[in-house]
């Protein structure tokens, strides 16, 4: 660690000097330029308004209800949280470096039904077709995003969108990441891209969405460092090594022979929708114009190809895997899915009245699935009925009920029934939400079948059942939010180490799926933001109580607190300067099965000591530029010297990060 305090000081000087240098262009000059641009527009002269107000986007979920766009977010709020492993509101346990296998720290149930492969360790890094943003831009929009530069994590993104004419927009997005990690064979790289287009007819009735998405993720596996006595704890007390790279990992292959989990996930998506009958349009003539149909029909088609590969080409001299003599391992699972979905929507409302509205959505979805692993291949299909019934009474009550039921196919009998009601008490009193759902879910494929080098099984399991009841309350004026969830679960599936009371070498690190009976979980989440002048304190507390803590492997308490100062520097640079502290109580830390890509409950059952982890940060915005600098795990200089979330895998050391995002409208 090379003088981290000096590095922080130098970057803060750079950070604020940049704002100072730009102060020459005052707000009055900017307003004058904007007024001139608007005058040209009013006089119907050719002009471009350089303003994010005219860069808007929509998503698939939005267009399922109406033609509506959202203004581009140009703020720097939460800009420092570039690593999806360390989102304060959705933290993970992981193998200790960006891009490596991760699992949710908090209990977040999977509400999907139907066929699922069961590989989730790298899901956070995927670029998904369903989350693509489709733009409507008066001017060409582009963005450059970069984190790292000369630091260990180098994350780069560029995206571009342009209207060919007012009704047709095309765009593309490209991501590239390279990380080195903190120990040998912890490097990660990915290449992700999507191209997309959105077309809307002149009469606002026909919409076409299309995208093609490519993901290639390469996550190295080092099997953890070699330290058999205290499972790696000595690495934080050892003063003989000046670099973490001096510790030998269990897997040491390099370059083309480096051990890794490799994911390929490519897809093509097209959606066509048509509005029938009367159209209700609001905000006419503004960038935020909305078109609400009274009848709509839609058809989606998607083709998705996924490949999950574990590769190594070396002997297992240090016991990273279960007993075996395989040198070359190339375990592969391939899945191809073709999905067709048909939808009809009916809306009942008074002409031009949106406060009282009833709606009915009906849908049918068919999935064709080709599955193959290292030994076998199969073909499956599922047919699902979908329905949604909703009613909005005035602007205060919104009641929704949803039904998803697989009626034919491999996962026949799966269902998800869900309902909720939003009640606006008043602008001062806030919003109350009551929700519930019932889920019947087939086992994911990894629990039923595994034909890999070190793991083989073929099981039949009962469907997992989940009943949920939730209450939440939000009050924006008070900066308060709270939610209480109760879960009753039956036949919960998880991975565990094979029982081995005699410590038989043949059974060490052998895992198998297991199904647990009835369990209960209560999850309470409270968030409260305080403000005193320019000082802010944001807080999040999550309490989880269950009668199956050893099965779920989650902490009972998690807290996150962010204290920062917010101001505007020289009337140009909007900035925040502060620190975060997060903490969770000890819990049964799982182990990680390398070639299966699964976290599992081992026979040791270690509960590592946990400590508050502090991050220092600053963010800023200068017109189209967002900046951040952060020093993460800053308290390593004092205590603790290191910590764990997964058995044998030490978490990352204190680190300095810098990032920038620059948006262009021209």
Low-confidence blocks of residues = 1-48, 228-233
Note the total helix count: 5
Per CATH, the class reads Mainly Beta
CATH architecture: Beta Barrel
Beta-strand content: over 45%
SS class:
mainly beta
Number of domains: 1
Q: Report the radius of gyration as a whole number of Å.
A: 26 Å
Shape: globular
Helix content: under 10%
State the total count of DSSP E strands. 36
The main β sheet shows up as:
22 strands, antiparallel, barrel
Gap between N and C termini, in Å? 42 Å
CATH superfamily: TonB-dependent receptor, beta-barrel domain
Mean pLDDT: 90
| CATH-defined topology | Maltoporin, Chain A
Description:
It contains five helices and 36 strands. The chain is mainly beta. It has a single domain, classed as Maltoporin, Chain A (Beta Barrel). Strand 17 (397-409) and strand 18 (415-426) form a beta hairpin.
Task: Tell me the layout of helices and strands.
Layout: H1 4-21, H2 27-42, E1 55-58, H3 60-63, E2 70-71, E3 86-87, E4 90-94, E5 102-104, E6 134-137, E7 141-147, E8 153-165, E9 168-179, E10 188-200, E11 206-220, E12 260-282, E13 290-313, E14 328-349, E15 357-372, E16 377-393, E17 397-409, E18 415-426, E19 430-441, H4 445-448, E20 449-451, E21 456-458, E22 464-475, E23 480-490, E24 492-497, E25 511-516, E26 519-532, E27 535-546, H5 549-552, E28 557-569, E29 573-584, E30 591-593, E31 598-600, E32 613-622, E33 625-632, E34 644-646, E35 649-650, E36 655-665
Key attributes of the depicted protein:
666 residues; mainly beta; Maltoporin, Chain A; 22-stranded antiparallel barrel; three-stranded antiparallel sheet; 36 strands; 53% strand
């Amino acid at each position: 660690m090379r003088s981290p305090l000096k590095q922080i000081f130098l970057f803060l000087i750079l950070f604020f000097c940049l704002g100072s240098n730009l102060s020459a262009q005052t707000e009055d000059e900017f307003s004058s330029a904007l007024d001139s641009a608007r005058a040209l527009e009013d006089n119907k002269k050719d002009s471009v308004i350089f303003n994010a107000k005219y860069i808007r986007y929509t998503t698939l979920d939005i267009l399922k209800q109406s033609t509506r766009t959202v203004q581009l977010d140009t703020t720097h709020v939460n800009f420092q949280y570039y690593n999806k492993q360390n989102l304060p509101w959705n933290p993970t346990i992981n193998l200790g470096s960006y891009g490596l296998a991760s699992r949710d720290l908090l209990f977040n149930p999977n509400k999907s039904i139907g066929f699922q492969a069961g590989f989730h360790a790298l899901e956070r890094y995927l670029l998904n077709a369903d989350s693509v943003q489709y733009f409507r831009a008066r001017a060409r929009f582009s963005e450059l995003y970069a984190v790292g530069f000369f630091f260990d994590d180098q994350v780069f993104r560029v995206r571009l969108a342009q209207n060919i004419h007012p009704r047709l927009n095309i765009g593309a997005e490209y991501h590239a990441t390279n990380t080195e990690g903190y120990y040998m064979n912890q490097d990660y790289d990915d290449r992700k891209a999507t191209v997309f287009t959105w077309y809307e007819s002149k009469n606002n009735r026909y919409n076409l969405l299309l995208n093609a998405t490519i993901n290639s993720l390469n996550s190295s596996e080092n099997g953890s460092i070699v330290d058999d006595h205290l499972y790696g704890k000595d690495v934080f007390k050892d003063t003989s090594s000046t670099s973490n790279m001096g510790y030998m990992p269990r897997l040491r292959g390099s370059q083309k022979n480096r051990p890794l989990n490799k994911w390929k996930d490519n897809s093509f998506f097209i959606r066509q929708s048509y509005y029938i009958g009367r159209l209700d349009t609001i905000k006419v003539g503004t960038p935020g114009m909305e078109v609400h149909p009274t009848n709509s029909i839609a058809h989606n088609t998607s083709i998705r190809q996924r490949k999950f590969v574990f590769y190594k080409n070396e002997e297992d001299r240090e016991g990273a895997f279960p007993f075996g003599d395989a040198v070359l391992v190339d375990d592969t699972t391939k899945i191809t899915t073709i999905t067709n979905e048909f939808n009809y929507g009916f809306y009942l409302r008074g002409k031009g009245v949106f406060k009282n509205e009833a709606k009915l959505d009906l849908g049918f979805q068919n999935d064709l699935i080709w599955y193959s692993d290292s030994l076998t291949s199969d073909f499956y299909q599922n047919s699902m009925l979908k329905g949604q019934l909703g009613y909005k009474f005035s602007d205060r009550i919104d009641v929704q009920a949803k039904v998803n039921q697989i009626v034919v196919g491999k996962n026949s009998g799966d269902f998800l029934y869900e309902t909720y009601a939003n009640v606006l008490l008043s602008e001062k009193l806030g919003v109350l939400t009551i929700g519930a759902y019932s889920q019947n879910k087939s086992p994911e494929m990894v629990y039923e079948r595994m034909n890999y080098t070190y793991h083989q099984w073929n099981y039949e399991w009962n469907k997992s059942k989940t009943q949920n009841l939730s209450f939440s309350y939000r009050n924006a004026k008070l900066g308060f939010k709270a939610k209480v969830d109760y879960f009753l679960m039956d036949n919960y599936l998880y991975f565990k180490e094979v029982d081995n009371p005699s410590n038989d070498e043949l059974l060490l690190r052998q895992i198998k799926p297991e199904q647990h009976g009835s369990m209960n979980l209560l999850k309470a989440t409270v968030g409260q933001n305080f403000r005193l002048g320019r000082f802010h304190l944001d807080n999040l507390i999550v309490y989880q109580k269950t009668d199956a803590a050893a099965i779920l492997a989650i902490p009972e308490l998690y807290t996150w607190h962010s204290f920062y100062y917010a101001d505007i520097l020289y009337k140009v640079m909007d900035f925040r300067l502060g620190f975060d502290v997060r903490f969770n109580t000890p819990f049964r830390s799982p182990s990680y099965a390398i070639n299966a890509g699964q976290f599992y409950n081992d026979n040791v059952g270690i509960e590592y000591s946990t400590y508050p982890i502090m991050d220092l940060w600053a963010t800023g915005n200068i017109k189209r530029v967002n900046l951040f600098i952060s020093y993460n795990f800053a308290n390593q200089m004092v205590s603790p010297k290191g910590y764990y979330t997964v058995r044998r895998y030490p978490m990352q050391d204190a680190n300095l990060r810098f990032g920038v995002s620059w948006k262009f409208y021209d």
